[in-house]
Amino acid sequence: MRLAVDVMGGDHAPDAILDGCKQFLESDSFSDAELLLFGEEAALKRFAEENTALMNRVHTVATTEVIGFDESPTAAYKKKKDSSMVRAFESVKAGEADCVVSAGSTGALLTGATLTLRRQKGVKRPAIATLLPTTTGGCVLLLDCGANTDCKPGYLQQFAIMGKAYMEKVTGIENPKIALLSNGTEAEKGNALTKEAHERLSAMPDIQFVGNAEARELMSGNFDVLVCDGFDGNVLLKGFEGAAKVILGLLKESLYSSIRGKIGGLIAKPAFSTVRKKLDYKEYGGAPLLGVNGGVIKAHGSSDRRAIYNALRQAHTWVKSDLVTAIGESISNTEIAED
Amino acid sequence: MRLAVDVMGGDHAPDAILDGCKQFLESDSFSDAELLLFGEEAALKRFAEENTALMNRVHTVATTEVIGFDESPTAAYKKKKDSSMVRAFESVKAGEADCVVSAGSTGALLTGATLTLRRQKGVKRPAIATLLPTTTGGCVLLLDCGANTDCKPGYLQQFAIMGKAYMEKVTGIENPKIALLSNGTEAEKGNALTKEAHERLSAMPDIQFVGNAEARELMSGNFDVLVCDGFDGNVLLKGFEGAAKVILGLLKESLYSSIRGKIGGLIAKPAFSTVRKKLDYKEYGGAPLLGVNGGVIKAHGSSDRRAIYNALRQAHTWVKSDLVTAIGESISNTEIAED
């Protein structure tokens, strides 16, 4: 298999990206994978010189442009034909690679996925999914996390289908429990969108729909997939992120505000880092984009070496599992009422 | 002033409610307030016997029905004419009291507010607001937190107006900064609702609109009021609640999983309780319902004595500040385009 890496995407590109690639190439678990690196010539040259032993599984493609976080994603993607991201997508479209891995602009990545790779047959809207840990030691897939801010019930039905395929193929959870994000667990709770979606999901024979879930249940382990529109997914995800920051910050502050606290803090330090690690998105790789003709893994913009390594690991599993075919089949096997 | 208390509402009613009332009555700060207690005869009788010294500022009204959390709010409110909640609302409508305080069903409370007290002139939709702490030592008002799951841009404009009035009158923050919850800080980010609302809020001369805010900023102190539809407000609030539970739980777990941790845990214990206290909704009283003809404070369903005491304290400030009049004026002074 071949993974196309956007070496120039992300806050710490190109170094952190290339360090992650190095770690990936050095691991025995992925010896069946080759990397297609798209980025500025100098950086790629340096990488090649420093890692001669690995280069038999690396193909470098020098690119002259970079899509920044500050520019309009769609315009930039259309204009910068020789950018590392566009070239990476082109390589997957041309069949030279199976999956794009990028820590670049989410908007540009979405544009590339839909413009270059195009939606899979029957897919109404591609979705960005995020894998999160649960307190029961498992994981939960939240989608959509921001690709579609205004959704119709039919989109949410397909998010459920794609989420199910992902959990079965990539994480190996058979017949995952699907929940719908709402403002109450009762079936009658929700807004116009979720009420209609609830009815439709309840009527889908191939989905194990467990009903509405409240935001507070996100990491409860009560379900394997949580479906919502991209606006709410973003609110939930960033809300959680903010809460974690606030709480750990407050704890530290009050721990270190007293001598007794200082000692406690020092002793408790390992616990803090354990929790931080448990909650760290970097441990869980990137966010897969589901519903397009090819693999796309969006790594966090602030990805470091470890985050990129995990994103590549995830891309590897993705390609091995042939998720795209699986999604294509379940989508075409499921009839969705007009919205 | 007179506060009408629904003694039978909440998980710990009537005892926790009456204990909160006792504490409120015993405080010198509220000697200008009388309480109108609505609840089952036996409980009120016991309270009267045990607190003879306080009864000169207490009026008890025996009621025979209770609205439970499990029944359909609207139906229950319409049917149970002699319930503690309905009678409390009736007393405010009749001018016998100025504000309802209840830890009962939110849905029933909303029904009572709109059916019995009725919307203020010009108010499109009443909103439930929640006051939260910020990391900068201040507080932020989030609304709507669940009264309206499907909103129009005009509703959000009025939430901003009502939120501003609340912060100015009740917390004393002049010309508060108003932000709009969205999936990105840039003006062009958002869904159909927030994009339109953003434009409208930007054009309101009497509002200090600071633009879009992401969910992660909730407690940042970057703004004093955060406006959103009731569905997203619920997701944000409960998501935060869930995150706090998960994080503190994980920390405890890993702290106590090692001897070293155990010691650290014991020493760090005070810090934990400080943070819990800081994040505890009970400290901040209840959630005011804005936009109806009379005061309504919704205390958390699981309210204990302290939560009820704080809800009463909040009701006291509310009535003193004559918020209803202030909201009425700002609403009638602001033209809102048709949705």
The global form of chain A is: globular
Which class do the helix and strand fractions of chain A yield? alpha/beta
Task: Please report which band the strand proportion of chain A falls in: under 5%, 5-15%, 15-25%, 25-35%, 35-45% or over 45%.
Answer: 15-25%
Low-confidence stretches of chain A: none
**Assembly state (oligomeric):** homodimer
Query: Can you count the helices of chain A?
Result: 11
Measured by residues with Cβ under 8 Å of the partner chain's Cβ, the largest interface is:
A-B, 60 and 60 residues
Task: Count every beta strand of chain A, where a strand is a DSSP E run of 2 or more residues.
Answer: 11
Mean pLDDT score of chain A: 93
Please describe what this structure looks like.
2 copies of one chain form a homodimer. Chain A has 339 residues and is of the alpha/beta class. Helices cover 46% and strands 16% of the residues of chain A. Chain A has helices spanning 15-26, 41-50, 73-79, 84-93, 106-117, 153-171, 192-202, 230-256, 259-279, 305-321, 323-332; strands spanning 2-6, 34-39, 58-62, 99-102, 127-133, 139-143, 177-181, 208-213, 225-227, 287-290, 295-298. In chain A, strand 7 (177-181), helix 7 and strand 8 form a beta-alpha-beta unit. In chain A, helix 3 crosses helix 5 (106-117) and helix 4 (84-93) runs parallel beside helix 5. Chain A is globular and about 60 Å long. The mean pLDDT of chain A is 93. At the A-B interface, helix 8 and helix 9 of A face helix 8 and helix 9 of B.
